[in-house]
Design a protein that fits this description.
The protein has helices spanning about 30-35, 40-45, 55-70, 110-160, 165-195, 205-220, 240-255, 315-325, and strands at about 15-20, 25-30, 70-80, 85-95, 105-110, 200-205, 225-230, 235-240, 260-275, 275-290, 330-335, 340-350. The protein is an alpha+beta fold. The strands form 3 sheets. Strands 2-1-5-4-3 form a 5-stranded antiparallel beta sheet. Strand 4 and strand 5 (about 105-110) form a beta hairpin. The protein is elongated, with a radius of gyration of 28 Å.
């Protein structure tokens, strides 16, 4: 079975191997090479079963699946890696039509499946939250305009009320509070609605974006931002302003939380899966700070609108950052503990 016969499997996000009648590997796609941390040449001609701790049980299940023409799922197969812990994987075997007794076996890391499920859940929740916030913002903006207008009319009437100057000034202070708070809420509603414009796609360099953010944060907070850039990263297609705002929101959150130092780190990563889509090349952008960390009680909700770990925070910064990254088919992940928080953005470069 020549590899050319399975060229259609090359771009699959899932790791796939093809087995012959003797359960010997005859083909492995790039995702399988990446998962198994080995080249195709070292896999071809090798017994598939020899790589798993549950050899006998897996052999019986695969042969039964082939005999009955059913798929077989094994959630407990452990791929043996020399010098490392075994890798738990889910195996799904399918007979190849027109190829007597040949099997295609998909290998899915159980940990990766959990991560993908988490990413998809976050995307779904973000979409639902965006729609809820958008509707809420529209509903709030209309009465806000009437509230502000009424306060302005009331303020004008004060001069003709016949009240003493000191009393008029005192009451005008109250109307000014109403007007200022209405303006503040109006600005907040506008920020909630901002992400709904379509991205303006153009070629850009991610390091130019980071340098812009670096200068803004340094001017606003006076903290130093370290740089660890991968010069091999090519230009990408994206919305410059949205990407600047996404990274700025993350870095600004760190500074506002009390971080004394922030690092920007970029790497080109190959054969990566983002939201079940396989990419040959992607950008990994990390924003690392030495602040107090994200409070544990809100870590599972940190990207939700109006959730903030900071007194007086609006809770929109990270929500907007996630929205802008999702517009670019990317994802944001984070790890946080006191003294080190790492926000990791993955963006496809193709």
């Amino acid at each position: 079975m020549a590899g050319a016969e399975f060229a259609g499997l090359e771009l699959l996000a899932t790791a796939v191997v093809v087995l012959d009648d003797a359960l010997v590997v005859r083909y492995a796609n790039p995702a399988a090479e990446n998962l198994l941390a080995t080249g195709a040449k070292s896999l071809l001609g090798q017994s598939f079963l020899d790589h798993f701790a549950e050899r006998d049980a897996l052999e019986g299940a695969l042969r039964e699946a082939r005999a009955t023409h059913w798929d077989y799922a094994a959630q407990t197969a452990s791929y043996l890696r020399p010098g490392r812990e075994p890798l738990p994987v889910a195996c799904v075997a399918t007979g190849i039509e027109g190829r007597d007794r040949a099997l295609i076996v998909e290998l899915r890391p159980i940990e990766q499946q959990l991560r993908l499920a988490r990413e998809e859940r976050l995307v779904f929740e973000q979409q639902s939250n965006r729609e809820l916030i958008r509707n809420l913002a529209h509903e709030i903006k209309n009465p806000l305009g009437g509230l502000r207008g009424s306060a302005q009319l009331l303020e004008r009437e004060l001069d003709q009320s016949g009240l003493g100057r000191s009393r008029v000034d005192e009451l005008r202070e109250y109307t000014q509070i109403i007007i200022q708070e209405s303006d503040r809420l109006q600005a907040l509603m506008d920020r909630m609605l901002t992400p709904h414009r379509a991205p303006r796609i153009e070629p850009l360099g991610i390091h130019e974006v980071l340098e812009r953010v670096r200068s803004l944060v340094k001017a606003e907070f006076g903290i130093e931002i370290g740089r660890d850039y991968d010069p091999s990263i090519p230009e990408m297609l994206g919305d410059r302003e949205q990407l600047i705002q996404a990274v700025l929101n993350i870095a600004r959150n760190a500074a506002q939380a009390g971080a004394a130092h922030v690092d920007f780190r970029t790497r080109a990563v190959r054969q990566v899966t983002i939201l079940r889509q396989r990419y040959r090349l992607a950008l990994e952008l990390q924003v690392i700070d030495d602040g107090p960390g994200v409070p544990e009680e809100i870590q599972d909700r940190i990207f939700n609108p109006l959730v903030s770990g900071r007194q007086g925070g609006t809770g929109l910064g990270l929500s907007l950052a996630q929205t802008f990254v999702q517009y670019h088919q990317g994802v944001i992940e984070f790890e946080s503990r006191p003294g080190r928080t790492n926000f990791r953005i993955l963006l496809p470069l193709t």
